[in-house]
Amino acid sequence: MAQVTSISHSMSSGDLIAELASLAPRLGGNESVWPGLTVYRFTEPLKPQWEEIQSMSLGIVAQGRKAVVVDGERLIYDSFNYLVLTDRLNFTAEIVEATVRRPFLSLVLQIDPSTVRKIASEMVERTTVLFPDEMPGIAERGRSAFVSNLDADMMSAVMRFLAAIRTPGDRRVLAPMCVDELVYRILQREQHNRLLDLAARETAASPISQVLAYVSGHLDETLSVTELAGRANLSASAFSRLFREVTGRSPYQFIKEMRLDRARDLLVAGHHGVAQVSRMVGYSSASHFITEFRNRFGVTPGEWADPSVTATGLNRGRAVIR
After folding, report:
1. pTM of the predicted model, to two decimals?
2. Could you give the angle at which helices 236-247 and 207-217 cross, rounded to 10 degrees?
């Protein structure tokens, strides 16, 4: 069995090397058509340099070796494992192994916090019902970075994601599901740490969880901070402060992102026009909806819903993961 796993990993590693080589024609960082994905190529080792991420990030090396120092801890990873950085961080990164013949090839995928919250909350709901006293990763709470084994399941999920971003249709429909799977597999392992812990505590005890459930079912309505604070039995200021602690966003920003994410899903389903979708997610002005959709996803709602949209169109006005 070990031999089969090794052969499978070797074949997948070769595929990953070829895929990243094609995505990184230039030395240094190469931006992708997928927001938050950067592919790196280096042909010689590099001394430690300061870097920064704004959200949970996944780092995978296809060839070569890299080291990061986070909170004084030095972590080394290569083609047999992957790195997870869990939140907004400043850290140093060093390319340890790279040559012209065997260039260093890696990807870094920054993941939208709303995706992490969604997957973690769904996992917590199942975990707390099925086996609340057996949650893995409890001893790891509070850590900001992890290196884990790049097993066949994780490698397959990565390859599916890279395949999905090649064409506009797959990128629009399949790639988000691939990212969900990557987050699920990360959280499924020892990476539960404070992300899963936060989701568990929020789901079990925080009044914010009830508000979020209400918001999800009433996105087509006007939602004010005063009304939502009343549902949580808090003052507006206390509610806003707790909401930001739990979600990392202000109520206004979070609800806007939830509305736009819902609109994206409705457009993919293809049953409604842009104007109707804008009303279904609470926008009274279709032009305002189009502007905010483009600011978040880098394309207009019409372009997102149109399978013939080009890769150039998707790349225009690249969405920023904050």
Report:
1. 0.58
2. 90
Closest Cα to residue 260, out of 88, 85, 68, 112?
112
What pLDDT score was predicted for residue 202? 43
Instruction: Give the span between the Cα atoms of 264 and 278, in whole angstroms.
Output: 10
Identify the CATH class of 206-315: mainly alpha
Highest mean pLDDT among 32-36, 114-118, 209-213, 303-307: 32-36
What is the maximal distance between C-alpha atoms in the chain?
A: 63
User: Which residues in 11-157 belong to E strands, given as ranges?
Assistant: 28-31, 37-42, 46-53, 57-63, 65-70, 73-77, 81-85, 89-97, 104-110, 145-149
- CB of 158 closer than 8 Å to CB of 175: no
- Give the chain's radius of gyration (CA, Å): 21
- Rounded-to-integer distance, Cα 30 and Cα 64, Å: 17
Pairwise CA distance, residues 192 & 315, whole Å: 33
Angle between helices 168-188 and 113-130 (to 10 degrees): 50
pLDDT at site 44: 96
Q: Is 2-192 in CATH node 2.60.120.810? A: yes
Segment 100-114 shows an average pLDDT of 91
Q: What is the residue extent of each domain of the chain?
A: 2-192, 206-315
Query: CA separation (Å) from 171 to 69, 122, 168, 304, 307?
Result: 33, 24, 5, 10, 10
Please give the pLDDT value at position 196: 54
Packing angle, helices 113-130 and 193-205, rounded to 10 = 70
**Dist CA 312 CA 298 (whole Å):** 11
Among candidates 230, 218, 225, 206, which has minimal Cα distance to 259?
A: 218
Yes or no: say if 285 and 266 are a contact pair by the CB < 8 Å rule. no
